[in-house]
Amino acid sequence: MPTCNDTNIHPATFLLASIPGLGPDRLWISIPFCLLYLTAILGNGLILFVVKSQRNLHQPMYFFLSMLSVTDLGLSASTMPTVLGVFLFNAREIDIDVCLAQLFFIHTFSIMESSVLLAMAFDRFVAIRHPLQYISTLTDSRIGNIWVASIIRGSGLHIPAVILLKWLPYSGIQPLSYSYCLHPDVMKVACADTTPNSFYGLFIVLSTLVLDSVLIVLSYILILRTVLSITSWRERLKALNTCVSHICATLLFYTPLISLSMIHRFKEKALPESQILLSYLHLLFPPVLNPIIYSIKTKEIRKQIKKIFQDYSAKRFQCEY
Fold it and tell me: What is the pLDDT of residue 7?
């Protein structure tokens, strides 16, 4: 816990961190970060455009994919201003209220993405286990309710977390570990007992990320049991192939996130480089790779994207000649 004095409590700013050891290479490292954000925005924007514009994609699976793209865009938008500010302009100071707002949106969109991944697992379970009831089970109204519930769940859990952090006293301009604000990172620089904050943060992790991951695993156990009951090997592979994209997205999201949460709470002497790497992997790579994974592995998405580019090329050719 940082030492406090009575004359310097509740500062207006925190100090964001760059990647350790970069030095003058800070500007060069900003290039891949800019490319990652650009890819995430274009990729997820393209997925949303394709699903919205093609009526044959107005099905539960693609609605959930649209939700995933929205949360990925939210994650990118939450981290992009400070990450690019640090690496492009070395703008490291951040007001405490701005910092708390950023961590609220980062954690809210993370919980929303976890909820959407769980809903997508349920979607695959219904499609494989009860294919005849698929459309009647996952109606548009139920899908809308799932989306609203994920928003309420993510934001509702983190409003108290932000309030608890706001009440804590801070001394001086405290350095943070990342180029964006996270709940455990802000909590550890407070000059007071943060036990309530720590327990509440652990409650959020257990009741959302851990619970969702367990339910996803259970869903796939039931899916696997159903697939193994199918006689034809070709039908088995066809059924499992519809789950590959979701499995990749789930592993991409949960693996670095759960590892980072465990490091924050149980390994205080862990190398800071490992924490920074896992944090960037969790927040930057899923928004970039999810659209690529689904574009490659989902036949209908791939076909519609190809059709859009072919139509665009044809129109350009007609305009030129």
Answer: 46
C-alpha distances out from residue 281 to 40, 203, 221, 284, Å: 13, 23, 27, 6
Cα separation, 143 vs 119, whole angstroms: 9
**CA-atom Rg of the chain in angstroms:** 22
Say which residues have a Cβ less than 8 Å from residue 154's Cβ, sequence separation at least 6.
107, 108, 109, 110, 111, 112, 115
CB 168 within 8 A of CB 190: yes
- The beta-carbon contacts of 190-198 under 8 Å, at least 24 apart in sequence, are 190/1, 190/2, 190/165, 191/1, 191/2, 191/3, 191/4, 191/9, 192/1, 192/4, 192/168, 194/1, 194/168, 196/164, 197/161, 197/164, 197/165, 197/168, 198/265
| Token code pair at residue 62 | 């693609």
18, 185 Cβ separation under 8 angstroms: no
In this structure, what token pair is assigned to residue 114?
Answer: 């976890």
SS3 172: coil
Q: How far is CA 52 from the centre of its chain?
A: 22
β partners of residue 93:
15
* Cα distance between the two ends of the chain: 70
- Per-residue DSSP letters for 228-275? HT-S-HHHHHHHHHTTHHHHHHHHHHHHHHHHHHHHHHH-TTS-HHHH
pLDDT at residue number 264: 61
The predicted structure's pLDDT at residue 164:
95
The per-residue pLDDT for 305 is 85
**Contact at 8 Å (CB) between 200 and 160?**
yes
The rounded distance, in Å, linking the Cα atoms of 181 and 186 is 7
214 in Cβ contact with 178 (< 8 Å)? no
Residues of the chain with pLDDT under 50: 7
pLDDT score recorded for residue 198: 92
Separation CA 82–CA 129 (nearest Å): 45
Note the Cα 12 to chain centre separation in Å: 28
| Residue-wise pLDDT tens digits, 5-33 | 554 555 568 999 887 766 666 678 889 99
